[in-house]
Structure formats: structure tokens, C-alpha cells
Amino acid sequence: MASELIFYTNPMSRGRIVRWMLEEVGHPYRTEIVEYGPQMKSPPYSDINPMGKVPALRHGDAVVTETAAICAYLADAFPDAGLAPTPQSAERGRYYRWLFFGAGPLEAAITNKACGFEASEEKSRMLGYGSFASVMDTLEKAVSASDYLAGDTFSAADVYVGSQVAWGLQYGTMEKRPAFERYWDRLKDRPAAIRAARIDDDLLAKIRPA
User: How far apart, in Å, are the Cα atoms of 198 and each of 19, 167, 204?
Assistant: First the structure.
């Protein structure tokens, strides 16, 4: 596709994950900073995302919201970047599994715990993720099974889940298990990850000068 990519974000948001993904893709894109408050809830931006949240992506006539969905979309829209296993491969199932495990059980478990919510054993059956402990144990096995979540090759699933692991380790919302630290060590020095962090850190410094 030759259509322009427009990235709606704020450097204090999950848009940092999409920024990393865009840098991995390597296709030119334009960034539109959306401020928290009235601008994010305003009618012009509501046409992009009625939830009034970032990130969002416009690619020609296509508008995509939800961070994991944007990562999956970009991987498929720009296959030459090699960020998703081919649809016919066995690794494609692992790729989908862990990308959406990150968007579902992992994020829900971390968010609930950070907000002080912990269900009883009986009530945990109602939760899509069961318990925080079971999510951490499942993730530990996944990142220990191979270098990357979909096998031996880095993918969009690693961008999404890896970002959550990085934040969890930094801010204490995840246990600092050695497997998680080793996994993030395999990702953190990727040139695209470094570029993306630098871009958003510079933008944050302009928004919130010291």
C-alpha cells in the first residue's frame, strides 16, 4: 500500500508500543500528538477513535485502533518487514496466541493487580485470565520456550508483549523473574526499539519540560 500512514499518539501512552512497531516496519509515517483532556475527547479526534483514546492509526481509508490490532495490521500491511509468520506456517498459530494473550489475559491481569483488584478463588473462574499467578506462570513458560514468542524469529507479538514486560519490570507491576529479564534483554537493544524510545522521550520532554 502506498497510502500515507498517520499515527495518533501521546508519548505518555500505549502509543509507545505502536511507535516501536512503526520503527520496525520502516515505512514513513506522520505523527499527530493528541493531548489528554478536551482534545482527545473532541469531535475531530472522535471520528478517529470514538473512545477518545490513543493510539490510533490511519492508513489511507483504513482506521485502526487498539494497540495489538495496530501491531497485527502493520505486520500484515508491510509483509516485507518480516514481523509476522506466514499464514500457512505453524508459527502463525503461536504468533496469534501470544499477541492476543498479551492483549487479553496479560494486560487485564496486570491492570487489575495494579488497581488493587484481586478476585477470590471462586470468583476467579469468571475472569478471562483466571489469576495473576497463572498468567505470570504461563508467560514465563512462553518466553522460556524459545528466543521469541513465535519461535526463532522476532515478530509483532514480541513488540507488544515485550513492551508490557519492560514496563512491568520497570514499574514493579510484574514479578522480576529471571525468565522475564532474559526475554527483555533479547529485545531492548533492537535499533527500532532504541529509536522509538528516543523519539517519544524527546516528545515528552517538549510536552513536559524540566
Answer: 10, 16, 10
Distance, in Å, from the CA atom of 138 to the CA atom of 1, rounded to the nearest integer, reads 37
By the 8 A CB rule, do 164 and 107 touch? yes
Q: In what order do the strands lie in the sheet with 56-59?
A: 30-33, 5-9, 56-59, 62-65
Could you tell me which residues come within 8 angstroms of residue 34 by beta carbon, excluding any fewer than 6 positions away? 8, 9, 10, 40, 45, 54
If one counts every other C-beta atom within 10 angstroms of the C-beta of residue 196, the result is 23
DSSP 4: P
Q: Exposed/middle/buried for 180, CB within 10 Å: 0-12, 13-18, 19+?
A: buried
Q: What is the pLDDT of residue 126?
A: 73
pTM score? 0.94
Q: 10-residue block means of pLDDT along the chain (210 residues)?
A: 87 97 98 94 94 97 97 98 96 97 95 84 74 94 97 97 97 95 98 98 83
Model confidence pLDDT, tens digit, residues 65-115: 999 999 999 999 999 999 999 999 999 999 999 999 999 999 999 998 888
Cell numbers placing 17: 508500543
Cell numbers describing residue 195: 529509536
